[in-house]
């Protein structure tokens, strides 16, 4: 068949003639000689060829940013650690907020809760409308209410927050508290000859530094450092002590500035909820018992009394104590000495740990008549601050019927009794306690129905001028081991009777 006809049937082009082929080859050779060797080759069959790819654009700012998103392994590790620190800090703040609202907070929780009103990094979904109404102690008052052991623990907690914090103002807040905590611990230590020599000029140091503002203190700090680094003949001990004192006053000034911001933020929150309380807070220093603001109503030349640490135990309301704490908050007509009040405030400042609740199950002491010494000394009930430890028991039954998402009911696991006897007439005889089981029941016997536990009375006995006091507790076998924080403790020291114990755990075998 003719090649042209076959091409027509198959949809091809007709084969070119010899002249056409010769002309095309000649034009192709001229084009090959003139073409760009890096460009596409000429298609002799006249088919569509790919266009030349344009050269890549030069690097721009957007491209550089995109390239910067690819991190090295070290950068990825640093990013992971930073994100983990942020998560830990966020969780610590959230737990502190919860403990303050539930009245079981430790001193570090109150310090963290103080900061939340101006913390720009907090989660706004964790806010509670009633947070501004919670009565709080000032940071300095919290530090002054603690002893050496509590300050040492608080110092570690503050360092943890300061290490994790990345907000500049928040870091300044924790740094100032670190300086004041260290100063407070130093003052509580017994002084040697050098310390007594420093104390002799303390009034002069206070007179110089107390009226100065933060800016003036920073300027004075530069001058003192320059003087210490110079070759002038100076009293080095005096100027070094002055510098140490200046850093403490500088921390106080920084903390006061931050606390003023906190007060302003709280007042703004209260204006819509409780205008009267907002005005009262604005006229004060921002905390109960603080000195009024200059020029406000009620301001006077007299310094304000330092607030009691018992505010921390009843922080949710300024007018009424929390449920179950009326025995602690209301002094009534009972004559509590200043020594008792100081011991009580110090114990309250420790707060309530997780798994603990305030324990107030006071009972009438059975068969007690008027003590023989009542005519000579006025009988009084001792003050106390007790805690009950609650938790879950994961025995075989509870493991079968419950899980960690749906836990079993909490049960009593132990008690912490702290009873204050600072004014004992005979201090050589320590107070004691004894267990009273009613209805002739003996130790180990049970008269309680199935599913409930026996109870008994624990009676605390001391000499004049204190009456006996009793509490109803669960009657189970005590664990007398010396485990850290959770072990048995029975002591009488510095006017405090401490009886801490937990119940033995019962393990069921198949």
TrEMBL record:
Amino acid composition bias (Low complexity), ranges on this chain: 283-319
Chain spans, region Disordered: 1-66, 279-328
Polar residues: bias regions: 43-52
One GO cellular component term noted in the UniProt record for this chain: cytoplasm
Listed Basic and acidic residues bias regions: 19-38
A family per Pfam: CactinC_cactus
Domain Splicing factor cactin central: 72-258
GO biological process, any: mRNA cis splicing, via spliceosome
Superkingdom to which the source organism belongs: Eukaryota
Domain Splicing factor Cactin C-terminal: 373-510
InterPro entries per the UniProt record, alphabetical: Cactin_C, Cactin_central
UniProt family annotation: Belongs to the CACTIN family.
Protein's recorded name: Splicing factor Cactin
Organism: Cercophora samala
